[in-house]
Structures are given as C-alpha cells and as structure tokens.
Amino acid sequence: MKVIALLAPLSLLAACATTHDPAALKVRQIDPPGASSPCKFIGVVEVTGSVTYWSMAEAKRDVLALTRNEVARRGGNAYVPTATFVERGLSPASAQADAYACP
Hints:
This protein is an alpha+beta fold. The chain is elongated.
C-alpha cells in the first residue's frame, strides 16, 4: 500500500507533458531566413517548461512543443530556435526562438 501511495504522485508528474494545440501542428522549424525571404519576422518567443522530466530528451521535446504552441498563438507558422536550455537537476527547461509567418 505504501508503494502505491509513493508512485501515485510520480505518475501525475509524468502525465504533465505538453500537448500541441491544433494550430501548432502546422508550425515548422526552419533555417534562418535570408534578406530576400518572404517570411515576416513576428518576434522572439521564450518558453519555460517544467522542472521534472524523466529524461533530458523528454525535456527538450516538451519545450519545443511549448515553442510551437506559442508561435502558433502569435499567428506564426515557422520558427528558428536560438537557444534551448535543458540541464539535470531542479532547473526548468527553457527555449528561445524567433517566430515567423511564412507563405
């Protein structure tokens, strides 16, 4: 019984992975656009994920999902990642990207 009481909170933490908003499924990662690009710069997006992840790969997937969600929320459909911070320990994962609206 004690084992179940200890595992229940952990299973709730594992279920906190970010899901994509429907519009975020159309957001793609691109290379930095050149001067002649038809893409319009929207702005810098900064997101922060959770403190608890099962792995560093899961943390990176989560902050990239948060990035796509935020780009879509701002009306963009593409982004160029500029920084991703994922560390071991109790520091939250975070990411920064340039958001664009591309044809």
